[in-house]
Amino acid sequence: MTSVKNNNMLPPGLVSNLQQVLLSRKGGGGGEEEEKKSDPSNDDNDKSTEPSTSTCVENTEEESNNSKPIVLVTNGDGIDSPGLVSLVEALVRGGLYNVHVCAPQSDKSVSSHSVTLHEAIAVTSAEINGAIAYEVSGTPVDCVSLALSGALFSWSKPLLVISGINRGSNCGHRMIYSGVVAGAREALFCGVPSLSISLNWKKDESQESDFKDAVAVCLPVINAAIRDIEKGFFPKSCFMNIEIPTSPSANKVSILMYFSQIAEQMLLLIYRQCAHNYRPLSN
C-alpha cells in the first residue's frame, strides 16, 4: 500500500494523481510498468511494484543542494504568469536558494482564502528552469497546503514562502479578497514565515517588463528577510505584504537605493511593531 507523508486529509483522487506525477518525473510510471503489474504470468504480480510517494519524492530531489535555504514560491495569477516566472528565474539565477514552486494551474485571483473540499484536485509537473515546479488545479491556499503536507517535496517545510509577484494592488481591503495574500497567510497558519508581493498594475500604463523591475526592487527585502529568519529575528505572528508601485522602472534608481540601503532597518522597525501588537503563535 502506498503511503503519503503528512497526508493532511488530501482527497484520494489527488493522492493517486500525485503518485502518477512523481513516478513520471522519474520515468517510472510508463506503460511497461503497468503491463508488468497486470500480467498474470508475472511471478511478482502479487507484490507491490509501486514505490511509496515519500521515496519517490526523495529520489526526485536527490540532486538538490541541501546546504542552501529552501524557498517555496506560489501565487494567485497562475504558474505561467510573468510575475511568478520572473521572480523564480531571478531566485534561481542568484544561486543562493533551493527554489521550489507549487502554484495554481490557472488564474485564481480574488479567490481569498478558499480551499477545495468536495472534489479532487490534480497536480502536474511543470517546467521552470532551475526550479522543481508543480501546477495544481486548485487555489493558492490548496497549493501551499499541499506543498507543506509532505506529499510533493522531501523537505518538512521551507525556510520561506513567497506568494507573488501578483498583477494588481493588494493593499488595504483588497487583502481580504486576494488569492496571493491568502497563499502567504496559509503559510503563516502552518508556522512558516512568508511574504506576499504585488505590483500595482495600471491599464494602459503598466507593461510586462515591469515585473522584472519589480523583482529587482523586492529582492533586497527577500534576502534580508531570509537572513533574519536564519538568525531567529523574523516574527512568527505575522507575514509581510509588499506592494511595488506602478512602473517601478520610472523610479528604479531611487527605489533600489531605498530598499538596498534600509531593507534591514525597515524589517527591524516592522518586527518591533509586530512584537508590540501581536503575541507569537505557539509552535
Question: Could you walk me through the main structural features you see in this protein, from its secondary elements to its overall organization?
Answer:
Residues 71-251 form the Survival protein SurE-like phosphatase/nucleotidase domain. Keywords: Hydrolase, Metal-binding. The protein is of the alpha/beta class and 283 residues long. The chain has a single domain (67-277), classed as Stationary-phase Survival Protein Sure Homolog, Chain: A, CATH 3.40.1210. Helix content is 40%, strand content 15%. It contains 9 helices and 7 strands. Strands 3-4-2-1-5-6-7 form a 7-stranded mixed sheet, with helices on both faces.
Class by helix and strand content?
Answer: alpha/beta
Q: What is the CATH H-level superfamily?
A: Survival protein SurE-like phosphatase/nucleotidase
**Any idea of the CATH class?**
Alpha Beta
Strand order of the largest sheet: 3-4-2-1-5-6-7
Characterize the biggest β-sheet. 7 strands, mixed
| CATH-defined architecture | 3-Layer(aba) Sandwich
Q: Termini distance?
A: 32 Å
Q: Based on DSSP secondary structure assignment, what is the total number of beta strands?
A: 7
What count of domains describes the coordinates?
1
Supply Rg: 20 Å
Number of H/I helices? 9
CATH topology: Stationary-phase Survival Protein Sure Homolog, Chain: A
Name the poorly predicted regions: 1-7, 29-64, 253-264, 278-283
Strand content: 15-25%
Relative helix content: 40-55%
GO molecular function: metal ion binding; nucleotidase activity
Domain Survival protein SurE-like phosphatase/nucleotidase: 71-251
Region (Disordered): 1-73
Biased composition (Basic and acidic residues): 34-49
